[in-house]
Design goal:
single chain; mainly alpha
């Protein structure tokens, strides 16, 4: 986080300020002081778009598996979906698409 703050203070904030003398640390796109409400709106936007740490950990672990292991997991999950008779459920709104690996 400290690198992001440093980059903001040294590079982004001066561009936003555009020669305005605004004492506030955080500025809106117009170069004015970012309001408390504006700050929370931005924070909510970032929180919605950020992947969860658990999701990142799973993606990382799965990517280290061999193609054969990934395929076995995929086949097992497909069988579970079939057994649950859940083939028609649209999980698209809650899932991200990724690379499909097949043998």
């Amino acid at each position: 986080v400290s690198l992001a703050v440093k980059e903001y203070v040294e590079e982004t904030r001066p561009k936003l300020a555009r020669k305005k003398n605004v004492p506030a640390l955080f500025l809106d796109p117009r170069g004015d002081r970012l309001t408390r409400q504006g700050f929370w709106q931005k924070l909510k936007e970032y929180a919605k778009s950020a992947p969860s740490p658990l999701q990142d950990k799973l993606v990382s672990a799965l990517s280290r598996l061999s193609n054969q292991e990934q395929s076995a997991i995929s086949q097992s999950l497909s069988k579970i979906v079939e057994l649950m008779e859940a083939e028609e459920i649209d999980a698209g709104p809650v899932l991200e698409a990724g690379q499909i690996i097949s043998e």
